[in-house]
Design a protein that fits this description.
about 400 residues, six-stranded mixed barrel, two-stranded antiparallel ribbon, about 20% strand
Length: about 400
Amino acid sequence: MNWNIANKNFYRQGLRAFLNVLVTALSIIALIFMLSLLNGFQAQATRNLVLTDVGGGHYRAPGFDILTPTEWEDITMPVPDVLGNLLAKDKAEVLVQQGQLYPNRRLFPVQLRGIAMDQSLLSLPLAGLKSFEDKPGETIPAVVGVKMARKAHLKKGDTVVLKWRDKGGAVDARDILIVDVGDIINPRIDDGVVWLRLDHLRSMTDRDGEVSWVAVREYLGPVQGFEFHGIEILMSDLLALLRQDRINSKILWGILMVLVCTSVFNTQILNIFKRQKEIGTLMALGMEPKRIVSIFTLEGVLGALWALVLAVVLGVPFFIWFHGVGFDVTHLSEASFPIRETIYPDYQPREILVSVSIVLALSIASAWVPVRKVTRLDPTLALRGRAIT
């Protein structure tokens, strides 16, 4: 009985009810879109870091810090057997040294990063180096990323002078040939990095068998002489940024909820004000105030349900279309975010269900709160339309 009355009253509101439903539905769509886009950014960024640099973690020489280039030459270690015996698909040996390029008569400090050519753990565009001999010749082959090539004004086929120090501290210099400009999706290993064959860099620096770290597919337990850095440590800066984005998204979520609750609250207040005589008549005929409250609350429930239906009707086609098109972030190509030019949303069913449930619960609560004053109305004043002024 209460549901039938609430149903008739809801449709009788006409445009006001539709606008209320529309605001709630658009808020639900905006909330899901915001969360899925943030999830997509996080998933793509972390996946690209893992595929190109992190792997399952690094066994590093003790004290090695990528942010202290002056110490790279002093912190290298021979590869222990437990790591050296791993399959090529389970490890990537990396040696990092400091160097200076001289492109177009300019000094350009660079990170020389040598990596084993037989590794398949990390996905890097270094195929151009595999065709060269184990020992470097008069000209050393190298690969740079697109960002590095743009900053240093380099292109495929260029020859440029490279200077470095060997293990004994002696300075050496030789021409390097840019055999390829690779599309490296991780700016960390692109900007200011020159990629060499590991055997070439070891020969150049007299560091036979030594590495700065060994990237592995999974944690192998303690390894004597090495420190293990897990994914959380290696991606700590990115994870901190994503946590901050989560906080910002909660602020935007709060703003959306305020808009939804305000819309529903105002609608209910207007309903009560305009229908004072109807409420007074029902109370005079003996209807209990609690039942009147339940009728008005059911109107709010009906509005929330229709908002959910409208959100599905409008949102599903939009989300399907957007999942195929993605979000262009070309403007971030110069930043340090390890993402491609397009972000694709990542929809998490559980997160969507929880978020929608919270929106509906707040909408119903916003419909119930202003109706509580019905229980305090004087029937005689309500009949005269003066109970609420």
